[in-house]
């Protein structure tokens, strides 16, 4: 007998081709997932990276981020021989001299060897943007060093330091009442009445930034005395609402806190003591970025039930007692920072954009609407189309073939042709701005392709089974339910997958028939979320990931039924 096994080299080539195709088609999805885990600053750089930068929780702050600048490499217009022999060393000496000649009170305690190398990389990036190409092609060492020294300036070092410098600072605190009157609680207050360290390894340094007083927080989780070591520190400050505002216990709506994050990925919580009650932020605010934030901490209220962006963190009551009563207009604001481990920092960065996306739009409501439409359409399509297919495949009635040809002819009509007539009909029925046009038609066997696929599968079932059932006294409905449906289950699964993917990704139909945001499915809700966020790529990728993940999971879980159903539909009778 001939060995019909495929040769090893052919199998190897086939598997390599399949693996290569999987990698090629998987790269866009890997880019989608990786971008959804990045910060905005990682996307807005010249370096193209699929994977996001790993978050490293800072043990102490302020500090210099040594990963801010790329390493020093030879410019493409510099001769390789000159670069390797003397140019890069001359360049490094000149940059180090410029760094040593620059002085800043904030940088003095931080300029160790590692941080100096980081600043040198930043200065090098600025030199690349100011030095002409001809300078890098100078063959004489002395001439090149003179040109570099002339181009170097203290501003380059200062700008590099400012870009890599990370610090935590607390700025203004505003009180917002129920009638949206705003009072700056920090305006006109003396610095002596500022933030105080309550507990933990922290110190407060009062500074002025952009003409306003800020409290820079110095903390160090590593160098404290072991017996008093703590992974949490807390600072607090007393405030008093102006007399012209409503009393805090009756008019308080939210606290607006401005702070500068130090990209340490630690968990920051805000607590408010007022009117004998202690409120604590319900969700963490991770110190993710390195710029000023304006964060709102708000009490529960009607805003929680509205379909509006939730750009605030909820304050929940956690305790009550006389120790939390500071008078009629007095309140105390406390800020707690808890150290994050590596795992928590990875989780915080991986979910940062998804938390923002869920806060910006009511994704869960859109998700529930899409799930409802998917379930109803899948069940309605399977039942109605299988009944029609059974009538075409197993019943003999006048005009059967003609009607089946008409069903197939509907597949040739573009949906754009029936769009306006369908809208007029549904509006006449009173279905405009409801979900009825999105699921009722699919319960009436309007899917000609599903009818055709099921008819072909049912025609492949032997007639002996049907005749045996008739001998036992079974009618058409019993034959359909107990014999036909179990035997065409793979085809039904394939149709269910097709229907699920169409309904889940359908954007045009909801856009035409639905005008109420409460009825938006996920596809339309994601479109409204992306509107006005053309430059926020990380949030867009996070929303797209939420949209595509159910489709990918469904395909991988049901691909066996999908392939089997398509294969069985092509069997001959």
What does this structure look like?
- The strands form 2 sheets. Strands 1, 4, 5, 6, 7, 8, 9, 10, 11, 12, 13, 14, 15 and 16 form a 14-stranded mixed β-sheet that branches. Strands 2-3 form a two-stranded antiparallel ribbon.
- The protein is built from 19 helices and 16 strands.
- The C terminus is likely disordered.
- The protein has 3 domains: 102 residues, no CATH class; 174 residues, Jelly Rolls (Sandwich), CATH 2.60.120; 190 residues, MetI-like fold, CATH 1.10.3720.
- The radius of gyration is 33 Å and the shape is extended.
- A hairpin with a 4-residue loop joins β4 and β5.
- α10 packs antiparallel against α18.
- The protein has 573 residues and is of the alpha+beta class.
């Amino acid at each position: 007998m001939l060995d019909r096994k495929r040769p090893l080299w052919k199998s190897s080539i086939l598997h390599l081709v399949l693996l290569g195709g999987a990698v090629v088609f998987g790269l866009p999805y890997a880019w989608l997932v990786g971008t959804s885990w990045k910060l905005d600053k990682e996307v807005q750089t010249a370096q193209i990276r699929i994977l996001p930068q790993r978050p490293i929780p800072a043990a102490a702050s302020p500090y210099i981020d040594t990963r801010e600048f790329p390493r020093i490499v030879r410019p493409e217009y510099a001769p390789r021989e000159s670069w390797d022999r003397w140019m890069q060393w001359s360049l490094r000496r000149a940059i180090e001299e410029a760094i040593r000649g620059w002085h800043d009170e904030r940088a003095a305690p931080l300029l160790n060897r590692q941080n100096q190398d980081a600043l040198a990389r930043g200065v090098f990036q600025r030199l690349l943007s100011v030095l002409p190409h001809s300078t890098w092609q100078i063959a004489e060492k002395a001439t090149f060093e003179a040109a570099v020294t002339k181009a170097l300036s203290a501003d380059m070092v200062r700008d590099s330091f400012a870009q890599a410098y990370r610090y935590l600072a607390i700025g203004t605190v505003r009180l917002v009442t129920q009638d949206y009157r705003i009072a700056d609680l920090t305006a006109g207050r003396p610095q002596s009445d500022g933030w105080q360290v309550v507990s933990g390894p922290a110190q407060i340094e009062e500074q002025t930034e952009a003409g306003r007083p800020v409290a820079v927080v110095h903390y160090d989780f590593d160098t404290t005395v072991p017996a008093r070591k703590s992974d949490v520190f807390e600072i607090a400050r007393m405030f008093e609402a102006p007399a012209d505002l409503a009393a805090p216990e009756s008019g308080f709506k939210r606290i607006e806190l401005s702070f500068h994050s130090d990209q340490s990925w630690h968990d920051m919580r805000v607590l408010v003591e007022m009117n004998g009650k202690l409120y604590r932020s319900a969700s963490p605010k991770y110190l993710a970025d390195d710029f000023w934030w304006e964060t709102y901490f708000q009490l529960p209220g009607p805003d929680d039930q509205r379909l509006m962006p939730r750009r605030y963190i909820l304050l929940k009551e956690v305790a009550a007692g006389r120790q939390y009563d500071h008078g009629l207009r007095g309140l105390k604001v406390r800020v707690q920072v808890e150290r994050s481990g590596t795992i928590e920092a990875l989780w915080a960065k991986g979910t940062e954009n998804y938390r923002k996306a869920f806060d910006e739009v009511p994704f869960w409501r859109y998700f529930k609407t899409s799930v409802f439409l998917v379930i109803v359409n899948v069940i309605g399509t399977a039942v109605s189309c299988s009944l029609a297919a059974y009538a075409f495949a197993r019943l003999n009635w006048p005009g059967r073939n003609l009607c089946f040809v008409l069903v197939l002819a509907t597949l040739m009509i573009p949906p754009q042709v029936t769009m306006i007539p369908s809208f007029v009909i549904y509006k006449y029925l009173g279905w405009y701005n409801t979900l009825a046009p999105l699921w009722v038609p699919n319960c009436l066997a309007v899917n000609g392709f599903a009818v055709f696929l099921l008819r072909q599968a049912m025609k492949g079932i032997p007639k002996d089974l049907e005749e045996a059932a008739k001998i036992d006294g079974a009618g058409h409905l019993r034959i359909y339910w107990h014999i036909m449906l179990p035997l065409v289950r793979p085809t039904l699964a394939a149709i269910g997958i097709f229907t699920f993917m169409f309904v889940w990704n359908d954007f045009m139909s909801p856009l035409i028939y639905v005008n109420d945001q409460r009825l938006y499915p996920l596809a339309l809700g994601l479109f409204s979320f992306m509107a006005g966020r053309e430059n926020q790529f990380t949030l867009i990728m996070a929303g797209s990931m939420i949209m595509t993940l159910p489709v990918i999971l469904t395909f991988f879980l049901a691909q066996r039924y999908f392939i089997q159903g398509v294969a069985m539909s092509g069997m001959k009778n």
